[in-house]
Design goal:
CATH class of the largest domain: Alpha Beta
Shape: elongated
Oligomer: single chain
Number of domains: 2
CATH topology of the largest domain: Cytidine Deaminase, domain 2
Radius of gyration: 22 Å
Structural class: alpha+beta
CATH architecture of the largest domain: 3-Layer(aba) Sandwich
Order of helices and strands: HHHHHHHEEHEHEE
Length: 228
């Protein structure tokens, strides 16, 4: 039995032709993935294979983006090239979201910070500590990863936090880090670091506006909770 390729399907069932004739928004997630992989296996079409992959992660595209090349290759019909196609397409989508968020980098609330940073660090499996540098109009003029750690902690050098701020004459900063565990409650170490950064900022006349703990689906704001 030959592989079920898209070219062998009835015209109405071909997602490429459907995209051209009816527009990209008419395609299901499975049909979009089917275009990426091009063919299925001896037992199922590309759409069928795409549906099976999506079903394995309950149809959640965010979960699909977390799958490695090796994990995707566990599905019959997905080789290294097809797995790379899927990962590449999802990474481009993520970067497009990030660029869209950066088009209006004005911070007016903790939610604005979350919208900007959640797509960068929210779904990581290790901790990262980032700083947003703001001007006096609350516009983000730069952002920087200060440290990258393990599953439960990352070491932060406060001097590095303010080095960049001084270089670009930032008047305010917002710091944030992720909790891969999904827990939002700040640790004693988180509270101590926040106070240390705040005090250093007072000395340098660079205000710490907030510290956020970000997970994939939620966030904790020190400012909102009155902890600054």
């Amino acid at each position: 039995m030959e592989k079920l390729t898209i070219k062998s399907w009835a015209l109405d069932d071909r997602p490429r032709e459907k995209l051209i004739a009816k527009g990209k928004t008419t395609l299901s997630n499975a049909e979009l993935i089917a275009i990426l992989i091009g063919s299925g296996n001896r037992d199922e079409s590309a759409v069928g294979l795409a549906k099976r992959i999506l079903n394995s992660i309950n149809g959640n595209i965010n979960e699909l983006a977390k799958l490695s090349v090796e994990k995707l290759m566990e599905f019959k019909g997905i080789g290294e090239a097809k797995a790379i196609n899927i990962i590449t397409a999802l990474e481009l989508g993520k970067r497009r979201q990030l660029e869209a968020a950066l088009e209006k980098p004005i911070i007016t609330s903790s939610k604005d910070v979350t919208n900007l940073m959640q797509q960068i660090i929210g779904d990581l499996e290790h901790e990262e500590f980032w700083v947003l540098f703001l001007n006096n109009a609350n516009k983000v003029v730069a952002k920087s990863q200060i440290s990258k750690g393990g599953l439960t902690a990352t070491i932060v050098d406060v001097r590095l936090v303010f080095k960049r701020a001084l270089e670009i004459a930032s008047v305010g900063i917002i710091v944030c880090h992720n909790h891969p565990s999904g827990k939002l409650q700040p640790s004693n170490a988180d509270k101590h670091l926040t106070q240390k950064i705040k005090e250093a900022g007072i000395t340098l006349d660079i205000k710490l506006l907030d510290h956020l703990i970000i997970t994939e689906k939620a966030y904790f704001s020190f400012a909102d909770e009155g902890l600054l």
